[in-house]
Design brief:
84 residues; alpha+beta; five-stranded antiparallel beta sheet; 3 helices; 5 strands; globular
């Protein structure tokens, strides 16, 4: 499973070091959901989506929009996730 971040506003995937790419195969694989969520939170960007790519095929993906989750006061107070 690959763990990626995608910007819904421009359909680009996070590549790392503040770079974005159109190609899913060039996107940074965070490896862990927690790492991707922490990066999304730290970026302060709106319109991000968590993509879980299954079986190495981008057509087999679970996609979760993060805006509501990242802005939730309950989430921030409880620190739902932490980097390892």
């Amino acid at each position: 499973m690959k763990v990626l971040l995608r910007d819904l506003r421009n359909d680009l995937y996070y590549r790392g070091a503040a770079e974005w790419t159109q190609k899913v195969e060039h996107a940074l694989d965070f490896g862990e959901i927690d790492s991707a969520l922490l990066s999304a939170q730290n970026s302060g960007r709106l319109g991000l989506e968590l993509n879980l790519i299954l079986f190495g095929n981008p057509n087999n993906a679970i996609r979760l929009q993060l805006d509501e989750f990242l802005r939730s006061p309950k989430h921030i107070e409880n620190q739902t996730f932490k980097a390892k």
